[in-house]
Specification:
The chain has 97 residues and is mainly α. Helix content is 55%, strand content 0%. Helix 3 runs antiparallel to helix 4. The protein is globular and about 30 Å long.
Length: 97
């Protein structure tokens, strides 16, 4: 949701969320708590979207998760390679050559 409301501040939001989890011991998996953390760190528009998720937020989140950490699938694999049966290191899977 940060990439939809303040894309230039994603790293700042991530830092605040991680500090809340690892320093403050807060449950960032709870959407209500995450919304409070966002508000505390001046991300009110993102907090509002989290409290009232819509189809656009769901679609954006789904697309980002599918793209993975570097835009290459959930585990960093290239989706086109996986569709051809190749593993993440170029090895074929499922007995194919």
């Amino acid at each position: 949701m940060i990439h939809l409301t303040a894309p230039d501040r994603e790293l700042e939001a991530l830092s605040a969320i991680q500090a809340a989890r690892y320093v403050g011991g807060r449950d960032i998996a709870d959407p209500a708590i995450l919304a409070v953390i966002l508000e505390e760190n001046d991300f009110a528009p993102a907090a509002a979207r989290l409290r009232a998720p819509d189809a656009a937020l769901h679609e954006a989140a789904t697309a980002r998760m599918a793209a993975g950490p570097h835009g290459r699938g959930a585990r960093g694999d290239d989706p086109a390679r996986l569709a051809r049966g190749a593993g993440p290191l170029g090895r074929r899977r499922w007995g194919r050559r």
